[in-house]
Structure formats: C-alpha cells, structure tokens
C-alpha cells in the first residue's frame, strides 16, 4: 500500500524557513512517560530523526511548553491564554512576542480551531483545524485555498501508548508547510483534549 501524500501547498506556509517540509513528511510526536517536567514531547521524522524537543512545566498556570531545536535553541513557547470564553493558545517567540494564536470553538459534531499568524513572506495566514478531537484526528486547512496542509491522526498508532497514559500522534505535513508550526497546532489539540 502506497503512503498517503498531501498536495504541495500553493505557497510556503510558515515562519521557520529551515523547517519547511520539502516533501510530505510524517512527524511522530510522542509524549514522554512520567516526565517530571509535565507534558514533554519528542518530535521525530518517521525515519526516527529527531527535529524538535518540547519541555512542559509542572504546576504552571499557563501550561507553558518550550519548544527547542536539536541544537538546544529555544524556538518558541506554547502558552494557554486565560481571559477567553473558548480555549485559546498563543505561540510566542523566546522574547514573548506572539507568533500565532489558536482559538478553539465548539461544534455540535466534532471540534474546530482557528490559527492565525503572519508567514515569513508577510502573508496573513488563517488555518482551520477540523476533526474529531475525541478520536484525536483532525485535518488542518489553509482557509485561503481550502487545501489540506496537514493531518493529525492518533488512531494509526499503538494502543500500548494508551496503557501508559502517554499520547503519540502521527502528523502528516504537506510540502511547503512549516513542520514546527504544525507540531504546535497538534500540541494545542493535545492540551485541549487534556482539559476534559
């Protein structure tokens, strides 16, 4: 059976140019079991090559998660913003400047979130994440082209992870799309699901 390929994005979508996918890439986001620092993840390509590391903070009101590249450089943080009706997350650069905002909204069937940010080329981006978050599956669409640019799926992974209470996601990213920002969206989805 051939691997599923996503269409190349009509233009580059993202902020971190060095992490723009050049082909359809499947990332594996695996939560560390019994991490003493809270929700921490290892993010690797399907080949096993690590690309990002996420460190969560225990007992943090904001649930701050810091994302690092493999050289240990702090790329961005994911922070829950509190004064909103619907769950809202901010992706901030190391200086605390908001790069992306992710707002959840309720749908009768399934879930929806909208992410807004400015791409590295200056384009104002609006992405929509739709799916069944209770099954931990969602498609991420570029609203301007209605193209699926990423797909999150946990069902294809083993039940062993569930037994140990850790989450593992497969995140498929289209060519021309920022893998780091798509990973951030996946982590926001995980955070929202953990609020139940």
TrEMBL record:
TM stretches of this protein: none
Pfam families to which the protein is assigned, alphabetical: LOR
Gene3D superfamilies on file: LURP1-related (2.40.160.200)
Entry-linked InterPro entries: LOR, LOR_sf, Tubby-like_C
Superkingdom assignment: Eukaryota
Coiled-coil features, chain-numbered ranges: none
Family: Belongs to the LOR family.
Name this polypeptide is given: Lurp-one-related 15
Organism per entry: Fusarium sporotrichioides
Native organism taxonomy: Eukaryota, Fungi, Dikarya, Ascomycota, Pezizomycotina
């Amino acid at each position: 059976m051939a691997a599923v390929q996503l269409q190349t994005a009509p233009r580059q979508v993202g902020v971190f140019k060095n992490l723009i996918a050049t082909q359809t890439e499947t990332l594996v986001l695996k939560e560390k079991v019994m991490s003493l620092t809270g929700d921490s993840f290892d993010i690797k390509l399907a080949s096993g090559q690590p690309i990002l590391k996420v460190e969560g903070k225990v007992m943090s009101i904001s649930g701050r998660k810091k994302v690092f590249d493999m050289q240990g450089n702090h790329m961005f943080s994911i922070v829950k913003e509190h004064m909103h009706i619907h769950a809202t997350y901010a992706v901030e650069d190391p200086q605390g400047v908001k790069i992306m905002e992710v707002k959840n909204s309720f749908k009768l069937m399934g879930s929806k979130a909208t992410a807004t940010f400015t791409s590295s080329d200056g384009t104002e981006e609006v992405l929509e994440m739709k799916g069944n978050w209770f099954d931990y599956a969602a498609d991420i669409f570029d609203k301007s082209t209605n193209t699926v640019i990423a797909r999150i799926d946990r069902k294809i992974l083993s039940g062993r992870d569930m037994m140990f209470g850790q989450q593992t996601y497969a995140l498929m990213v289209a060519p021309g799309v920022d893998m780091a920002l798509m990973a951030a969206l996946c982590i926001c989805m995980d955070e929202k699901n953990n609020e139940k």
